[in-house]
Known about the structure:
single chain
Amino acid sequence: MTTTDFxxxxxxxxxxxxxxxxxxxxSGGDAKALATGGGVQVNGQAESRRGRKLRxxxxxxxxxxxxxxxxAT
Length: 73
């Protein structure tokens, strides 16, 4: 599994925006399909809400990719 860190610019980011920003989804439609299709886990739990707010400390897994959310320094 490939693990990458994502630095927040504010206090949160939505799941769909993270999927797009990280390159896992090419568009908002792709992000929606990935999330609603059961292809995403947040902190070990299946997540289908593309508007889910992610904060520092959360981990998102899709396939063989893990993204750790960090507070910007």
